[in-house]
Design goal:
The chain is mainly beta and about 260 residues long. The strands form 7 sheets. Strands 12-13-15-17-16 form a 5-stranded antiparallel β-sheet. A 5-stranded mixed β-sheet has the order 18-25-24-21-20, with no helix packed on it. The protein has a 4-stranded antiparallel β-sheet with strand order 1-2-3-4, with no helix packed on it. The protein is globular, with a radius of gyration of 19 Å. The two termini are about 30 Å apart. The relative contact order is 0.12.
Length: about 260
């Protein structure tokens, strides 16, 4: 449970997650042609995690963001995984990079149980729960982050040049530059966690399920099931509720949604 997955070239790749109440750093691939499972060797230095999400870029690079870790020594203590994991699917190289190294600390707050959607090779991250609760951090998020990546092939003696332009090495073959921006969208500010998202026609993102903030001031519950379906229009940068679909789908947590023939 608490894992993520991407689909590419008839391979269904599953990242990390929780097994027997302990966070994992394992990666498994399901071959859709052979119907077989096989593990990918993972560097032991890659932090175990769950409640994260993974997005695929250029049909080659899988980037895992966010989540938390529960170790065998402290099964009830959630520790934020303040890092990204980059996976080159061609070479199977894996590289973990802390948010501090990415110079985005203060822009992106570590979180879990959020949505991450690829639209036109750009990642859109919405919502989620705060891992470390404080007066500065809300317990549930409503913002949307636009995540863009730029990849360069490793050529000759250009390492210092790449570093000067905020690129960093993720494998023997590639360097990457990451940018994260809060889009400050208009419309309804929707606080959700453990919800699902779907790319609609490379123009919008559909959000369904999960839980939202309990505004009824019921002290027994911080969150209540989300019975609404929302649509974020990327060009208009606006979030709206699809009122005709309210209460049409029973509330649920941590589901998946896919677009089939639009």
């Amino acid at each position: 449970i608490g894992h993520s997955s991407i689909l590419t070239n008839n391979k269904w790749v599953h990242y990390f997650g929780n097994s027997h109440e302990i966070s994992q750093n394992s990666i498994y691939v399901f071959d859709l042609n052979l119907f077989t499972w096989s593990p990918i060797c993972v560097n032991s230095n890659i932090k175990p995690r769950e409640g994260h999400n993974t997005v695929l870029f250029d049909n080659q690079f899988a980037i895992t963001i966010g989540g938390f870790s529960i170790s065998c020594y402290s099964k009830k203590t959630e520790q934020e995984t303040n890092s990204f994991v980059f996976h080159d699917l061609k070479s199977n190289d894996l590289k973990e990079m802390s948010i501090d190294r990415l110079t985005i600390k203060g822009i992106f707050t570590p979180r879990k149980d959020f949505c991450l959607t690829n639209v036109n090779n750009i990642g859109y991250l919405h919502g989620g729960l705060s891992i470390v609760k404080s007066k500065e951090n809300p317990s549930i998020f409503s913002n949307i982050f636009k995540i863009t990546f730029e990849f360069l092939e490793n050529k000759g003696n250009l390492s210092e040049y790449y570093k000067n332009f905020d690129f960093f090495k993720i494998s023997e073959l590639y360097w990457i530059k990451l940018k994260i921006k809060d889009v400050c969208y208009e419309g309804e500010k929707i606080k959700l966690h453990s919800h699902s998202s779907c790319n609609i026609l490379n123009k919008s993102i559909l959000y369904i399920g999960g839980e939202t903030e309990n505004l009824a001031n019921n002290k027994n519950r911080d969150f209540i099931p989300n019975k609404s379906i929302y649509l974020y229009n990327i060009k208009q940068n606006r979030m709206v509720e699809i009122h005709t679909l309210r209460n049409k789908i029973p509330p649920r947590l941590s589901t998946t949604v896919q677009n089939y023939k639009n």
